[in-house]
Amino acid sequence: MNVKHQKNKRCLPNLKSRNGLALVTVLIVMTITVSLVSFMFIRQDARVRSLENSSSRAQAATVARSAIEWMGELALADAKDKKGGHLAEGGPEEIPLFEVEGGELTGRIETVQGKLNLNNLSKSGAVDQPGLKIMRNFFKLIDVPQELAEALADWVDKDGDMRPPSGAEDEYYLSLKNPHRTANVELVELNALYFIKGFDKKIIEKLRTYAVALPEGTPLNVNTASAEAITAIFGGALPLKWGKSVVEARGNGFEKVSDFKKLIPLEISIPTGWSISVNSWYYLIRAEARFQKARVAYMALIEVRESYDTARIIWLKEA
Questions:
Q1: Which fold does the domain 116-277 belong to in CATH?
Q2: Peptide bond before 13: cis, by omega within 30 degrees of 0?
Q3: pLDDT of 51
Q4: Could you read off the pLDDT of 177-217 as tens digits, one per residue?
Q5: What angle do CA 143, 146, 151 make, to 5 degrees?
Q6: Distance CA 95, CA 70 (A)
Q7: Cα atoms found within 13 Å of the Cα of residue 264, Cβ hemisphere only
Q8: 255 burial type by CB count under 10 A (0-12 exposed, 13-18 middle, 19+ buried)
Q9: Euclidean distance between the first and final Cα of the chain, in Å?
Q10: Reduced 3-state DSSP string for the chain
């Protein structure tokens, strides 16, 4: 009896130890289980939010794209009704903020032929001296280094001859840290200037106010052009003061090109290859849509002609 009792007493500590270990194991398992369940809920919540954001972004993108097409058709209708219409005679038109189901939309449309078309510099891949003179004069008027005109000319002309003193061809561009060749074609849009020698962000942003890159040579719309652009096309023959007087005199716009020409001194003429108009067929459109936290904005260059059945999108990009 005494022996058995002593045996049982010796076994009790082991039993308590096992029970304690089992309890700890259960607690660890429960903790891991709770953590796993919480993690699954977090992942599920993140997945749901991601899907919601994707859905909101898709909605915003659809509305913004539709707004681009809608404003393009407005410009086309304007061109058909008035042969250039009020859109081609005035400044940018803001589309006021309005709500769509679950979101909101804003827009902007402006004619861009009131800006100097940098692609007018190249005529079938060749750059002539009068054109280069106009570009140098234009850069001077807007406080951009004049020598950049040579770098631009080398970029858009088809030959491989560098124009002194500041031009650049393949030899220069292939020596850069990120080498590339000269394009030898017209600019698609102003962002292409980043690839050209001497053009930086500050200069390009300034050019956006006064210049544009269009897919063909275009006349300058004197009803929307700045004094700098109007003055520039005369290649330095007239002062900026004259260009400012033209802007003041045009009021609501010239009805005919001949009305503008009455303001040009008799001894002055527009250089060959450069022309003017009182209407436009190229427009820059921006549309921005918001749905919940998603925001999507698009920009597009469109072309509208009286003979077109629908507006033609030249390029479209996310802004």
A1: Ribonucleotide Reductase Protein R1; domain 1 (1.10.40)
A2: no
A3: 47
A4: 999 999 999 999 999 999 999 999 999 999 999 999 999 99
A5: 130
A6: 11
A7: 18
A8: exposed
A9: 93
A10: CHHHHHHHHHHHHHHHHHHHHHHHHHHHHHHHHHHHHHHHHHHHHHHHHHHHHHHHHHHHHHHHHHHHHHHHHHHHHHHHHHCCCHHHCCCCEEEEEEEECCEEEEEEEEECCCCEEHHHHCECCECCHHHHHHHHHHHHHCCCCCCHHHHHHHHHCCCCCCCCCCCCCHHHHCCCCCCCCCCCCCCCCHHHHHHCCCCCHHHHHHHHHHEECCCCCCCEECCCCCHHHHHHCCCCCCCHHHHHHHHHHCCCCCCCHHHHHCCCCCCCCCCCCCCEECCCCEEEEEEEEEECCEEEEEEEEEECCCCCCCCEEEEEEEC
Q: Is residue 136 within 8 Å of 146, Cβ to Cβ?
A: yes
Output phi, psi for 46, to 5 deg: -65, -40
The pLDDT averaged over each successive group of 10 residues in the chain (319 residues) is 48 51 56 52 50 74 89 86 58 68 85 94 86 93 96 94 91 94 94 96 96 95 95 94 95 91 91 87 93 90 91 93
Q: Is 263 exposed, middle or buried (0-12, 13-18, 19+ CB in 10 A)?
A: middle
Sign of the CA dihedral with 270 first, then 120, 191, and 54 last: positive
Tokens coding 198: 């001497």
222: Cα separation from own chain's centroid: 24
Tokens found for residue 79: 């061109």
Q: Which residue has the tokens 């700890």?
A: 24
Q: For tokens 């002539």, what's the residue? A: 128
